[in-house]
Each structure stands twice: as structure tokens, then as C-alpha cells.
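Many introductory courses stop at the sequence. We go one step further.
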Amino acid sequence: MSGKSDSTGVKSAARVLLIFEYFEKMRSPRTLSEIAHDMDYPVSSTLALLRSINSMGYLNYDSEKKTYSPSIRFSILGEWIRDQLFEGSAIEQMMEHLATITQESVLLGTQNGLRIQQVRIVHTAQSLSYAPPVGTWRPLLRSSAGRVLLSKQSEEEVVKAVERINALGSDEGRVFDIGDVLKDIRSVRKNGYSYSSNVFVKGAAIVSVALPEHAGIVPMAISVAGPTSRVDKDTIPELLDHIHAAIEEFLGDARSKTSEARSAQ
């Protein structure tokens, strides 16, 4: 296969995924013209793409309203992953509880390569808040969730990650001192949490804790985020108390239910 064909295939695959990310953002059926306009695609190629996805059963088409929307077939594709990650909605319940108790945004992050992705976010009702869009990517070494997940890894693994980031220039070309990174990760490991402020958004702060590891589940970090006026070093102890209590209440219950179910089999 030629390089050109490879490039075309990758571009087409990316557009298919972007279509579904678009629907995740819009959360409503959309017409061909709306999709083409919003995504800045030519109408002809957008139509061909939508028809192709529709023919495979992953998009519904309403001929009367002339709108497209994701199908049930697409929605169930990742259910097994959701079931594995969220353990019967225990994590979702924990996040909702934390958002209510802290009155701040609650984020769930996972490591994907050399970056962190926020895969779930519960927004606060407060007018002044910090809540990036679901799916937001952050550099591993500079994100609060990234550092707390690195603290669960061996120092050898941390060194390898730093070397790869430096070699690839994957964090905007930044070069990190391995000694400084290890010192920071040791501090996070000792404290059991990571805190950062004014890193990606001025006036925003975030405190992260690694969730307990379970067999077969990817490492995840739970974070409470908000303006620096409310999420600061003075409020960290209280926020950590809420986070740890929520983890014990909701994930502890989930572990007990899982054990009971296995015993009954």
C-alpha cells in the first residue's frame, strides 16, 4: 500500500471519529448542511461520509426531517468498556456526590500514552467554575492527574516516560529535568495527592487523587477543580477529606457488591 493510500485511510478514519465527537458535543440530530458547516467540510464529501456510516448502521437518518444522529448500534459498541471502567455507575455516583458536596467540578482522568485525557466531567452549578470539555487532553508531566498517576508507577517507568517526552518533544517541545521530575513525583507519592494552579488556565486550580487500582481496570485519577479563590492550599485538606470519604463510600460498596456477586456464582 502506498504512503498516499495510508494517509487517505488515516484521514478518513479520523473524520469518522470526529463525526461522533461532533454529535457528542451537539447532543442532537443534525442536518447535512449543519454538519458540513460546523465541521468545515465540503458538502459533497460530508454527504459521502454520512451515507457510508449510515449504511454500516452507526448513524440513523430521518428522511422527513433530513437529520442524522448516532444509532443504538454505535452506542452499545463500548458498553463493555464502560461496564469495566465504571463498575455499575459507582464512579459516576461518586463524582455526582463529590460535585454536590464540594460545589466544584469533578473530573475523571486516565493516562493515554504520554498524555492525560479527561473522560468524564461533572460540572458545578456555580457561575465561576473550571470545567474543560469532556475528552480534553493534558500533558502527562504538567497535569495534576498525570503526576498523581505517575506516582503509582516505579521510578524506572517515570524515567522512561520523561525520556520519551523529551525525545519526542510531545509537551510543546519542553525538556524536563529527570531529577526534578522524580523529586516532584516522590513528593506526590508521599502526600497522596497532586495540586496545581494557573497551569493551563489562569485562575484555575485542581487537586487530584489516584483511584484504588482494581484488576482489569485502567489507572484513573479523580480531580476536584475550580477557581484558585476556592481551590487553594487552605481548602486542600477539606477537599481531600471529601474525596477520600467518597472513594470509600462508593467504591468500597462497589468492591463489596462485586465480591458478593462472585461468591454467589
